[in-house]
Amino acid sequence: MIINEPLYPDICMLPWEKALFQTRSVKRLKYLAHYGAGSLVSPVTHSRFEHTVGVWKLTAWFFHEDRALRAAAILHDIGHLPFSHAVERTLGYNHHELTKKLIQSEEICTILRDNKIRVEDVVACLNQENGLTGTRDIIGLDHVDSFFRDMYIMGGLDRLPKEVLPFMKCTKAGVEADETTCSFIMDCMVNDHQLFLSPLLLAADQLLAKAVHRYCETYNDASIHLLTDDELLSVLKQSQIKEVEELLDVLLYRTETLSFSETLTGKGLLLNVKKIYNKAPLYNGKSYVETKDGAEKIRQLHQLEQTYSAEWT
């Protein structure tokens, strides 16, 4: 497998890192859309594998000597379900717990153990506040890559991320940058939210979630959380459940028939904004939200907290 991506400078991959990238759990990420069901209705179609490569590059750039954190960057998403969060909520799984379980699998444990990296240290990196995961108020490298990458695919960047890295720092306290770069990061965050919290993308997640829920009411499929995106769609298409077939038909082929309203009718789908990610970089030792520009961008984010109803013909 060729392991590279265009957003950041090349990083020398250590032999044990290459071995982790070749594991079944990490390779599976190539078949999981980073944007969930939104990948079916938008141009943002990159996989969680590309995101993982990006997060690993950033982690290796800022924490060159921290082998446990570099391993955690490679493994941080391996517990994701097909189409990520929409299906996770529907099935009642926690991808963080699934990630921990998979890190403790024999294939991954053997690579870590042979290279004198403690499994416990890697798991701790994902459970603690640090530069990779972020802290209570400060953004970490995981989400920085998400916002950069989504906007890159959308054509929404006026600067490449590799051009702003020299103006960024990252410590255990999270990402820190100069004023211009902080504003750039926050712009990416706001623009990304405006897309994935738009009624169409909310509806895509809900249509898929409802189809999966209806399928699971009929079939006791204990392996569904281990499927890839394509495998899940195949299972749903073959379910022989009329409601599931209709939901998939709308999602895959008839989204133009969807209509949205902020007036809740009690019919169709109820679309709720579940979460706003409102962390920020550090600027001069304080959260960027304490600046006028940062506060305005947080205000723009919270304006997206709306509820819609969706119907289709």
From TrEMBL:
An individual GO BP term: dGTP catabolic process
UniProt KW keywords: Hydrolase
InterPro entries: dGTPase-like (IPR050135), HD/PDEase_dom (IPR003607), HD_domain (IPR006674)
Keyword DNA-binding: no
GO MF, one example: dGTPase activity
One Pfam assignment: HD
Record's protein name: Metal dependent phosphohydrolase
Organism: Shouchella lehensis G1
